[in-house]
Write a structure and sequence with these properties.
single chain; 336 residues; alpha/beta; Rossmann fold; 10 strands
Length: 336
């Protein structure tokens, strides 16, 4: 195994489940061979850099259980629940206190104790540690926090990888500013290796290749992490801004399930489900349940009333399954 003479020094913003998988993966695949397929890894070498060339140089979080601890310990601190699949030796890198902004919603405050430590000098830390790439694993919905960290990456002349659905790499102004400084910008959002989004995409493409035209498709995600609590708050904001009356009883029911079982559940409904899906990618251990409304056109189209009836039956079944899973989760945790 050959490695490059220069390492890639990576800073992490948000030491959560995704960061845990990333850090564990660096240890697990450190000795991966480049001349043979490696299970679970698309490429062990990229652009002349091997997995072993990637070093963690800095980390930032706001959780009191993580700030001040070595990254190797912080990745397993609550509420993280990623499976331990690799032994991570001490990194010598301690988690610094980051800036909160909108990275901690009101539902998350019941799960996370915000650190009382003073906020670190972000630019100074990046410069002192020689960080080359800043990877943002902030919670879904952290718009202002993501923009703040992207700005700091520009100032420190670091590449920026945005792993949540906030428009940074997709925004023309941000792209221009990073390009002017000769800095790579990647994003937005990441997908699980074999999660709901990629399975949904493959199935939709399969129907297209088989001559079936999709009229409507949506995706229901069950499982995941604290991102789901943030999305409960985001959904409420969307409802109120649209001038529609909220459903506190329904929201409270989903809040209880999320509290007790780390499962995020959403009310059935077309547009609302699609909004949740757009914000709920890259969930650790998520399971996607996909319902496809479709119409064949090789030997004539299906009658509209028949298609509508099929859609309704599928929706009823999805709704029933939804409530069964919620009830089972509460039962397992000892809830009412």
């Amino acid at each position: 195994m050959e490695t490059s003479s220069q390492s890639v020094r990576v800073g992490i913003v948000g030491v959560g489940n995704c960061a845990s998988s990333f850090v564990q993966g660096l240890s697990y695949y450190r000795n991966a061979r480049t001349n043979e397929p490696v299970p679970g890894l698309m490429n062990s070498e990229l652009g002349g850099y091997h997995v072993s060339d990637v070093k963690i140089s800095a980390a930032f979080d706001i959780n009191a259980s993580k700030v001040g601890r070595d990254v190797a310990e912080a990745i397993f601190a609550a509420p993280n629940n990623t499976n331990r699949f690799a032994k991570v030796p001490p990194t010598g890198v301690r988690v610094h206190r980051g800036r909160t902004l909108d990275g901690l919603g009101r539902y998350l405050r019941g799960e996370i104790e915000e650190s009382s430590a003073p906020e670190a000098d972000f630019g100074e830390v990046l410069e002192a540690t020689g960080t080359n790439v800043l990877v943002s694993y902030l919670p879904v919905g952290a718009q202002r926090a993501t923009e703040w960290y992207a700005e700091r990456a520009l100032e420190a002349r670091c590449a920026f990888v945005n792993c949540i659905p906030v428009f940074i790499a997709s925004d023309e102004n941000w792209r221009r500013r990073f390009k002017e400084r000769g800095l790579p910008l990647l994003g937005d959002d990441i997908k699980s290796q074999v999660g709901a989004t990629i399975v949904h995409r493959v199935l939709a493409n399969l129907f297209r290749e088989r001559g079936v035209r999709l009229e409507r498709t949506y995706q229901l995600n069950f499982g995941g992490n604290t991102d789901f609590l943030n999305m409960l708050e985001r959904n409420e904001s969307t409802r109120h801004s649209a001038g529609r009356r909220g459903h506190p009883r329904r929201t409270e029911r989903f809040r209880a399930v999320a509290d007790r079982s780390q499962m995020g559940l959403y009310p059935h409904g077309g547009n609302r489900v699609r909004r949740c899906t757009a914000q709920s990618r890259a969930k650790t251990g998520s399971l996607g349940l996909t319902e496809l409304g479709r119409r064949g056109h090789r030997r004539g189209t299906l009658r509209k009333d028949r298609a509508r009836s099929q859609d309704c039956r599928a929706a009823d079944r999805s709704r029933q399954l939804f409530h069964e899973i919620a009830a089972a989760a509460v039962h397992r945790s000892g809830g009412a």
